[in-house]
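Milestone 3.1: sequence recovery, worked example.
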């Protein structure tokens, strides 16, 4: 295991220890300025990871830390969501996780995602490959979307935003936490995922690192590669899959009216 992955593994273990003080489904939440929920668990994990992960000269970007512009001058930046899927955490749905990504010169080079409820730990980098609970995994080898399992945002499905993708030969599975969805695609537990609403860098960096570590395809709706540690952290959308599905997904989205945000 590389030094970076060892640090990520220690961070996930420290987060797991914090979470022992909380029971999913029995947690009080307050609302942040934008209306999204936040819990004491989010804040405590943020504190622990911010103390543990960055070395001198490395930057920090987290959903639960006030952003500081000095990260933009750093070659290496930790991009973290202490608890992605807080809504699911509060409701006791086992689709939330801790997400850690390490970005170098704008590209995610290592990532780790922990879902304590399901007992899944995903770790990976381009130099080491990806493991699930210590065992090597590989991504989907599909080249056709017929029968493919596509993970969709539970909230987007409830709002009816995935109706354009009904009856097109794919199996749409609603799931919380975009980071967890990306981890499952990276591990070959699903074939693809895409988002129909904007997402922030901290939602994506850890999972994108895992998908790209195994030569999967991750891109924005405009076809551009994902770059991180930008002044504006919000992405218009994201598409992730095994390499063989990139072209079929692009064709499907175009056929169904370009449903992704531009």
């Amino acid at each position: 295991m590389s030094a970076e992955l060892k640090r990520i593994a220690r961070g996930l273990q420290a987060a797991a220890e914090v979470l022992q003080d909380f029971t999913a489904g029995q947690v009080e939440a307050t609302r942040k300025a934008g209306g999204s929920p936040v819990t004491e668990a989010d804040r405590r994990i943020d504190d622990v990871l911010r103390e543990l992960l960055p070395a001198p000269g490395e930057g920090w970007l987290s959903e639960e830390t006030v952003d500081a512009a000095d990260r933009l001058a750093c070659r290496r930046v930790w991009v973290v969501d202490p608890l992605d899927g807080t809504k699911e955490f509060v409701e006791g749905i086992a689709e939330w996780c801790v997400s850690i990504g390490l970005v170098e010169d704008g590209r995610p080079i290592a990532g780790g995602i922990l879902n304590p409820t399901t007992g899944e730990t995903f770790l990976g980098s381009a130099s080491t490959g990806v493991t699930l609970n210590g065992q090597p995994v590989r991504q989907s080898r599909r080249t056709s979307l017929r029968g493919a399992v596509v993970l969709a945002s539970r909230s987007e499905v409830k709002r009816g935003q995935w109706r354009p993708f009904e009856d097109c030969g794919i199996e749409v599975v609603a799931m919380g936490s975009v980071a967890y969805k990306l981890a499952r695609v990276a591990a070959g537990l699903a074939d693809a995922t895409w988002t129909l609403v904007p997402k922030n860098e901290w939602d994506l960096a850890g999972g994108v690192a895992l998908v790209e570590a195994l030569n999967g395809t991750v891109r924005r709706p405009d076809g551009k590669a994902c770059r991180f540690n930008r002044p504006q952290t919000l992405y218009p959308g994201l598409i992730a899959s095994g390499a063989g599905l990139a072209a079929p997904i692009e064709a499907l989205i175009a056929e169904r009216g370009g449903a992704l945000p531009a």
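The radius of gyration is 17 Å. The longest helix spans residues 3-19.
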